[in-house]
Specification:
Two copies of one chain form a homodimer. The first copy, chain A, has helices at 20-31, 43-50, 60-66, 77-85, 111-123, 136-141, 153-159, 162-166, 179-207, 212-219, 227-237, 247-262, 269-286; strands at residues 13-16, 37-39, 55-56, 69-72, 102-105, 127-130, 133-134, 145-149, 167-172. The first copy, chain A, is built from 13 helices and nine strands. Chain A is of the alpha/beta class. The first copy, chain A, starts with 12 loop residues before the first strand and ends in a 22-residue tail after the last helix.
Amino acid sequence: MMPPNMNSSLPTVGLIGLGAMGGGMAASLRRAGFTPHVFDVRAEVAQAFAAEGGHACPDLPSLGAACDVVISVVVNADQTQAVLFGPDGQSGCAAHMKPGSVFVMCSTVDPKVSVDFERRLNALGLHYLDAPISGGAAKAAAGQITMMTSGTDAAYAACAGALEAMAAKVYKLGKQAGAGSKVKIINQLLAGVHIAAAAEAMALGLREGVDPHDLYEVITHSAGNSWMFENRMAHVLAGDYTPLSAVDIFVKDLGLVLDTARSSKFPLPLSSTAHQMFMQASTAGFAREDDSAVIKIFPGIELPPASR
Amino acid sequence: MMPPNMNSSLPTVGLIGLGAMGGGMAASLRRAGFTPHVFDVRAEVAQAFAAEGGHACPDLPSLGAACDVVISVVVNADQTQAVLFGPDGQSGCAAHMKPGSVFVMCSTVDPKVSVDFERRLNALGLHYLDAPISGGAAKAAAGQITMMTSGTDAAYAACAGALEAMAAKVYKLGKQAGAGSKVKIINQLLAGVHIAAAAEAMALGLREGVDPHDLYEVITHSAGNSWMFENRMAHVLAGDYTPLSAVDIFVKDLGLVLDTARSSKFPLPLSSTAHQMFMQASTAGFAREDDSAVIKIFPGIELPPASR
């Protein structure tokens, strides 16, 4: 497909937050023919992006006023709240967005918070899509992320091709905000427990004198395998704790999982145990290391050294 | 390859325990040209097997005396002990095996127990292979199991093609008994934690009103996936708790994991939590249901009904 750079049928799309995920998603939009309007708290990052195509917006109100679709790729609910409303309700994008435009919320948040965002934006005449993402930086750059979405038919219609430009798979999970965030939260439950379990298994192997490379080879071909074991234990074998996703992300995300369940008094024995493990790793000094560094909480073992 | 039914270069192979795994493994040996000597406490099962080829042995001593390779596929360490030695040291197979023959131990046992079996058999002039298996009944029938093995070069040499007739993959993990059992134990750690985590995640989804089929579809295509989530949550969606592997198997296997770690005072927070969940399920009445029935410990949810 030729990139229709000036295709008047494409909506004006804005993207807020040019981090590891957002930067790749904005580039995917540009590659698909959109002219992304971008904003980042680091103005130089937005300008560097726009130098290769697109517009760097000086602030959130101007981005909101210019766009038909506003995609928010920030870290958490507090940042999303700030992006939408600012401290005064006026300095975010929401108060300046055109009636009928849509806000696409890509962060991992408490589902109840996402429901509340939908309610507040609908009251302003705006559409809202609950749209947490997964897949990592490489898939974001390739336009191959997964989106776990829910929202009204009108909200989907307003997105007009923008989701497909960023995602390999757009799961549509319901007509109301919250369903997308719930599924994302449950994915994080499993991801977090699986990373901690992978660390526990590898640690026991080291304690018992099993060759860690042998263990990795067998497990990744057996019924004990998980996506996270295969991915994260490769970091442990390489002795490389460069954070692709940090320990503190799972302190946050498993915290969201537990908050969600606590509000209906629902017990989550493994999630609460894994959360304790990530908190132990964080406060022991590994907060900003790769989440596989949760293995460093185990005593009496010697981890594989850095390969280099 | 033509089955060389009377190939005099093939050793005489015996197999003890014609259950879901052992029955398929014996059939795979027969298909590969061996003439299996079989024993099962249910004599009629051994006779039914031999009716299509092979020999049904009336007792363990006669099987031991006849065979070059004895493969034991019983439930646990106690049964393996009984198969080898009987209550009196004479009524098992070990006292009757030929010097230089090999005993292949396929059960999931405490690695220290496997080390002890090796020591005792070596003292009798017999070889020993630590060879726990994984893969389930369908792979056993197809000759496609995985074996996690360790032992001396002489022990491997004595097996003379029998392992390859049963297994798609024979992992060789060391020169001494114990290494195979350690890796198998660690696989069970992950398998057990992953089943319990899958149940916890699916239970939270049901509590939150997420469509369980949607949740399954998303998770099995996301970073939260595990081999066990994909396999066992299909049983939950179908409402089918027919035991392919029962809750009490993981009460046993996670118990072995914890025993192994306790002897070196090594903490396993997730394994111990998952073990408690399987024990709760067992004593609540689901001991003999499929291990995915661990989801029944969660209160306040309605599980999918049986599909039929």
